[in-house]
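hey so i finally got around to running the thing on that chain from the lab meeting. sorry it took forever, my laptop kept dying and i had to restart like 3 times. anyway pasting the input first so we r on the same page abt which one it is
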Amino acid sequence: MTAHRDNTRKIGGSEEDRAAAFLESRGCTIIKRNYRCSAGEIDVIYTDDSTLCFGEVKFRENSKNGLPEEAVDKRKQRKICRASDHFRMMNALDESLSYRFDVLSLTPGNINWLKNAFEYIRR
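ok and heres what got predicted. didnt touch it at all, straight out
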């Protein structure tokens, strides 16, 4: 593994920690972090009131490569949806349960919580 990749993972981990602390400070309950399955990965799964939320955490040091949330394209959204299907199935969660897909857009001095950032994408 290269030093660059190690550093990227280290930064990613600390930014995910920052996002989780932010969510908890807003009254959310973290259920799972870094949920991985064959379909993909979800950075953070949490409840916001009675809603189950699947959150994608994106960090950018600056805006020269665009805003963090712009990196959550349709392909990434589809993977998150498939991973959420897996999580809900493995935990026998009822289809009537309210859930949404959020993006936590982080820059060095800010966290922008985009609730319901995208809709569920069917297969």
